[in-house]
Amino acid sequence: MSEKKFSKKHEWVSLEGDIATVGITKHATELLGDIVFAEVPDPGKSVEKDGQAAVVESTKAASDVYSPISGEITEGNKAIVDDPSSINTDPEGASWFFKLKMKDKGEFDSLMSKEEYDKFCKDNPN
Amino acid sequence: MEVQKTALYQIHKNLGAKFVPFAGYEMPIQYKDGIVKEHISTRTYAGFFDVSHMGQFFLEGDETLTEALEKIIPADLKSLKLNHSKYSFLLNNDGGIIDDLIVTKTKKGFCIILNAACKENDIKQISKFLGNNHKYLLNNDLSLIALQGPKSVGILEKLIPGVSDLKFMTGNNFNYDNDNLYITRSGYTGEDGFEISISNKKVEKLVNFLISNEVKPIGLGARDTLRLEAGLCLYGHDLNEKINPIEANLKWAIAKKRKNVGGFNGWDKIKSLLDNGSEKIRVGIKPDGKVIARENTKIFSTDGNEIGLVTSGTFGPSVNAPVAMGYVKSNFAKVGTLIKLEVRGKKYGGKVSELPFYKKNYVK
After folding, report:
1. Is the Cβ of B20 closer than 8 Å to some Cβ of chain A?
2. How far is A81 from chain B (nearest CA, A)?
């Protein structure tokens, strides 16, 4: 099973080999409310750690989605672009945002574990 | 200034409201179901909105009161029948909109519903025209509940017999629990519905009745998506003191008689705009695809010239597409005109659209 890590900006990353899949957490979707728009990066684009990589919009507002690790985009999830509401229903499964070829495993290792992230959310409810 | 709370604050809390500061009040933006479900349940069943932050301003006086108000409100107040309501504005000397409002003729004078953020200044502006023989009161002992949606009439009729006889934009006094209510058939969603003025002491009981009839509480979030689909303006966004009713595409709200005769603030300007047209005008906008053009999105012509600005934009759950309103140069205002919308530095296609985006029939 692939390992899943979490960022303070409420993204999750799972790793298979050197390909990382990135999405937003269930907690993030609860803060955002009903999601009505998503924009994902094109393959070939390079992203920096904590750099803006995608966009998600709820009925209330637009938010940037950051990449918790550096690398080169290999795929954006067109399914969430076509059906943004699916991000509310399955944020940590089928409704991932993008995949990238990881540059530095150290960046991944430095992210939070599930337990650490849950505690982080509890301590920072908004 | 201390943040104010409506009489229903605790009820909202119990219903799982998320609060936001709005016009000095702590108001629910949404409840547990979220904006989209709240929006849809209003359109398909019924929803209730606590709009008690809005000003309920009562004026009493003889015909000189009507004359005084007509100096700042361009409605035909002299011909307004008892218990009939009109959508109108307070205008400044340049014809700019100080606030938009609903004015209703009452036995003793008028009741004006004012926007929460504007109400204090509104009263200052109105009182400049009033004489010693005119009485006025912003009644903070009253709550205001909007009940909106196709099932509203059936549900409210069970509690308050007779409300189903009201026609759109009329009202009347009703008795409820040994208290007087004033109910108008009106709203801000494009649906059939009512606005109920009720004492702060009785409002909880009324709301509990609505909840027991499966009417959902609706927050400011869905109120915004509903009114935008219905093509209705939000003061402070689509309207402000620098915009006049002609630019706002609201000339229908100026009484015909008053357009010709004038005698109200800003008439010179408005008359000239009526004759010659305005430079810019409010239009509906439909972005292509799913991109949302929010407030302050720049609007361009297809050949790249900047032609206007979005003043409201969101996703319309009933239209199932993004919807927006904004001001464009008048020669780009024709329905169907192709435009470009600049979102996050990229230009997306869109077109000028008819308003409202979502149409229902009011009970006339």
Report:
1. no
2. 8
B178 vs B180: CA distance, rounded Å: 7
CA pair distance B263, B66, nearest whole angstrom: 12
Is A120 part of a structural domain of the chain?
no
Residue B360 pLDDT: 76
CB-count burial class (<10 Å; 0-12, 13-18, 19+) for B214: exposed
Between positions 275 and 294 of B, the ones with CB within 8 A of A are 290-292, 294
Query: What are the tens digits of pLDDT across the range B227-275?
Result: 999 999 999 999 999 999 999 999 999 999 999 999 999 999 999 999 9
Cβ A37 vs Cβ A12: under 8 Å: no
Residues of chain B with C-beta less than 8 angstroms from the C-beta of A62: 292, 294, 344
Among B228, B290, B320, pick the best mutation site for testing chain A contact (most A Cβ within 10 A): B290
ipTM above 0.90, yes or no: no
Of B29, B36, B292, the CB nearest to A34: B36
Residue A60: band (very low, low, confident or very high) from pLDDT cuts 50, 70, 90: confident
A2 DSSP 8-state letter: -
Q: Which residues of A touch B37 (CB under 8 A)?
A: 34
Q: Do A33 and B35 touch (CB under 8 A)?
A: yes
Range of the structural domain that residue A62 is part of:
3-112
Q: Look at A34 and B294 and tell me if their CB atoms are within 8 Å.
A: no
For residue B195, what is the enclosing H or E element?
strand B193-199
B216-217 and B47-50 as β-strands: parallel, antiparallel, unpaired? parallel
Whether A60 is covered by a domain: the verdict is yes
Q: Give the pLDDT confidence score for residue B1 in this predicted structure.
A: 63
Kind and range of the H or E element at B284?
A: strand B280-287
Contact A59 B29 (CB under 8 A): no
pLDDT band of residue B82 (cuts 50, 70, 90) is: very high
Q: Is A72 among the domain residues?
A: yes
Give a yes or no: residue A47 inside a domain. yes
Q: What domain count does chain A have? A: 1
pLDDT tens digit sequence for B104-141: 999 999 999 999 999 999 999 999 999 999 999 999 99
Report the CATH number at residue A95: 2.40.50.100
Mind listing the domains of chain B with CATH numbers?
Answer: 9-54+140-229 (3.30.1360.120), 279-364 (2.40.30.110)
